[in-house]
C-alpha cells in the first residue's frame, strides 16, 4: 500500500515537534488536559485486557510511554510518520524509558509489520485529522490486519457542548480553508468500525456531554 501524504503532515518539522511536546506541559490547562487523557488511556488499556504487546501509532514525542511502561513485561513498539517527532522523542525521554521502547518510522496507512503482529494498537490523536471516510477505512483496515486482539483510538465526536460550539464557529467563518480536524458523528464512525471488522468493547469520554474527545476500545471480530 502506498503511504498517503496528508495535508497536515508536512508541518511536523523538528521545531514544530518540539513545540508539540512542550504544548502538553506549558500551561495549567494543558497539564490538566494531559492528566485526564492519561487516565482515559489507562482505562482503555485496562478495558483492552492489559495487553502484553502494544504498538503506539502515531507515538508523537512519547507522551504516553511512561503509562505504557507501567506494565514491566510489556513490549512497546512506537512508530510515527514524522521523523522529527521520533527525533524529539529520543531527545526528551530518559534513557531508562527509551530502553523499553523500540521506535521506527511508519505510516498508519502502511504499517511495516506482518498480520496479527501485536496484541494492541494504541492510537491517540490521529483519527480527528482524517477527514475522508475512505481514508479512515484504510487506516482501520490496516489496524485490523496488524492487531490480533484490540485497538484503542481517540477522536472528536458530536453530541456534546463543545461540538455544538465548534459547529457554530465553522458556520460563522467568512472564508473556507482546509480543515485538518473534524468532529465525527458518533453513529457514523461506529458504523465505520463495524465495516472494518471490529466490535466496540467500550468507550471513555473526556467529560461527558461537554468535551469532544472520546477514546474507543475496539475488539477484532475474527470469523
3D structure, described in words:
The chain is an alpha/beta fold and 223 residues long. The protein has one domain: Vaccinia Virus protein VP39 (Rossmann fold, 3-Layer(aba) Sandwich). It contains 8 helices and 7 strands; from the N terminus they run ααβαβααββαβααββ. Strands 3-2-1-4-5-7-6 form a 7-stranded mixed beta sheet, sandwiched between helices. Helix 6 links the parallel strand 4 and strand 5. Helix 1 crosses helix 4. The longest helix is centred in the first third of the chain and has 20 residues. It is globular and about 50 Å long.
Structural class by sheet pairing and helices? alpha/beta
Q: Give unreliable regions as ranges.
A: none
CATH C-level class is Alpha Beta
Side-by-side strand order of the widest sheet? 3-2-1-4-5-7-6
What is the helix/strand order?
A: HHEHEHHEEHEHHEE
Number of helices: 8
Count the beta strands. 7
Per CATH, the architecture is: 3-Layer(aba) Sandwich
Gap from first CA to last CA:
24 Å
Helix content: 25-40%
The major pleated sheet works out as: 7 strands, mixed
Average pLDDT level:
91
Q: Name the overall outline.
A: globular
Rounded to an integer in angstroms, the radius of gyration calculated over CA atoms is 17 Å
Spell out the CATH superfamily.
Answer: Vaccinia Virus protein VP39
Q: In the residues, how many domains can be counted?
A: 1
Which fold name fills CATH's third level, the topology? Answer: Rossmann fold
SS strand fraction: 15-25%
